[in-house]
């Protein structure tokens, strides 16, 4: 029983630390980890809907002109943490790596929150609805 109480206290302490991290700067994390491919203004790479010579799609924009807002939070989180190919499966190839080894979950969420904060209300509402549909 003492072990369970200690575990509960540890988990509660961890949850408080994560909550404190939620205030981190998602915009700065985006610039450090995402902008080199997705653009400093979230504009993506040119011709992002057409495969390049290697058969892979260029990095899409994360602004309202892209399709990021077409996905719920769970998918966006898993793509960022694990990489597109691991989420899509079926032999899909992508240049989007997973950042699970270099970013903490709270940092990934901060980046996604920053991206979502740049969208007009229509796109944010659509994305919230997709997140709730699970």
UniProtKB/TrEMBL annotation:
Region annotation Disordered: where it falls in the sequence: 38-70
Keyword terms of this UniProt record: Electron transport, Heme, Iron, Metal-binding, Respiratory chain, Signal, Transport
An MF annotation (GO) of this entry: iron ion binding
Cofactor: heme c
A Pfam entry, by short name: Cytochrom_C
Signal peptide (UniProt feature, chain positions): 1-19
Boundaries of every Cytochrome c domain copy: 21-119
PANTHER family given in the database record: BLL4482 PROTEIN (PTHR35008:SF4), BLL4482 PROTEIN-RELATED (PTHR35008)
Listed name of the protein: Cytochrome C oxidase, cbb3-type, subunit III
Taxonomy of the source species: Bacteria, Pseudomonadati, Pseudomonadota, Alphaproteobacteria, Rhodobacterales
């Amino acid at each position: 029983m003492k072990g369970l109480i200690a575990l509960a206290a540890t988990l509660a302490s961890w949850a408080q630390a994560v909550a404190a991290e939620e205030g981190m700067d998602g915009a700065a994390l985006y610039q450090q980890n995402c902008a080199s491919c997705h653009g400093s203004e979230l504009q993506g790479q040119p011709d992002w809907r057409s495969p390049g010579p290697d058969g892979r799609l260029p990095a899409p924009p994360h602004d309202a002109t892209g399709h990021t807002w077409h996905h719920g939070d769970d998918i966006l989180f898993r793509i960022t943490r694990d990489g597109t190919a691991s989420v899509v499966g079926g032999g899909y190839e992508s240049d989007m790596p997973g950042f699970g080894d270099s970013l903490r979950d709270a940092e990934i969420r901060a980046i996604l929150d920053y991206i979502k904060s740049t969208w007009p209300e229509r796109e944010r509402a659509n994305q919230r609805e997709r997140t709730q549909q699970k």
